[in-house]
Amino acid sequence: MKKEVTMEIFGDQALFGGFSTNDMKKKLGIPAAKPLADFLPALTIKAKEFANELTSHNVIEKDLGEQDQISKEHVDNNKAVREILLKRGVRPEALPAAEDVKKLERRLESDEKKASKGSK
Questions:
Q1: Do the beta carbons of residue 70 and residue 8 sit within 8 Å?
Q2: CB-based burial label for 79 (10 Å; 0-12, 13-18, 19+)
Q3: Count of the separate structural domains present in the chain
Q4: Helical pair 67-87 and 3-15, crossing angle rounded to 10 deg
Q5: Looking at residue 46, what is its pLDDT?
Q6: What pTM value is reported for the model?
Q7: What does the alpha-carbon distance between residue 40 and residue 95 come to, in Å, rounded to a whole number?
Q8: Which of 15, 38, 64, 110 is 20 to 30 A from 55 in CA distance terms?
């Protein structure tokens, strides 16, 4: 397994209170072949992005070069973001799935085509 994938898996477990990426897919009824991120609500996406940005920043600020150091930093940042959410009454693993992003994109494209045909 690639190091980046391992880091993401442990980051997800930290953010979702011990639930792995696959656990969350099962919990939310997401097909195994689909990316979890395509079904996450905006708040969870932003939480993951924030943890990732903290990691990117701290890799430079703390001069982290070893993969183990970077992975630990990533997990610690996901735990910290989780704590912020919990203090505000939000449990990331309890949020409902959002509409499939890819399905939404296809519907928007279809609606745009219909709208452009109607305006001619």
A1: no
A2: middle
A3: 1
A4: 20
A5: 97
A6: 0.79
A7: 8
A8: 38
Listed in sequence order, the residues at least 6 apart from 10 whose beta carbon sits closer than 8 Å to its beta carbon are 71, 74, 75
Tokens at 64, concatenated: 């982290």
Specify whether the CB–CB gap between 24 and 91 falls below 8 A: no
Domain range enclosing 71: 3-118
Q: Residue 17: what are its φ and ψ, rounded to 5°?
A: 65, 35
Tokens matching residue 107: 């519907």
pLDDT tens by residue, the chain, 120 residues: 555 556 678 999 999 999 999 999 999 999 999 999 999 999 999 999 999 999 999 999 999 999 999 999 999 999 999 999 999 999 999 999 988 777 777 877 887 777 877 765
Q: What are phi and psi of 67, to 5 degrees?
A: -60, -40
The pLDDT of residue 41 is: 94
> Rounded to whole angstroms, how far apart are CA atoms 104 and 120?
25
- DSSP category for residue 34: S
